[in-house]
Amino acid sequence: xxxxxxxxxxxxxxxxxxxxxxxxxxxxxxxxxxxxxxxxxxxxxxxxxxxxxxxxxxxxxxxxxxxxxxxxxxxxxxxxxxxxxxxxxx
Length: 90
What we know:
Layout: H1 17-22, H2 25-28, H3 30-36, H4 65-70, H5 73-76, H6 78-84, H7 86-89
Pfam families: ShK
Domain ShKT: 10-44, 58-90
Keywords: Disulfide bond
C-alpha cells in the first residue's frame, strides 16, 4: 500500500504508527516507518490522507512494558504483550 508515483495509496498500515511517529521513530527507524507509516511521518506525496487509527489504540497499559520488552517478553509471551503493551511490542 505504498504510494508509487501517481496513483498508489499512502496509508498507515499499523495501528501504532501515530504513536511511534510521536516518539521519533520516523527518524530512528526510517526504513520501517517509510514502508508502513507514511502518513504519520509525512512521507506521502501530494495531499496527506487521514490516519486510519487513533493513537489512543496504541498504548501500554502497564508501566513495566519497557522492562518486559528488554527481557524478551514480546516474543516469549506474545498474546499478553500484544494486548497490554501495544505501543512497546506492537
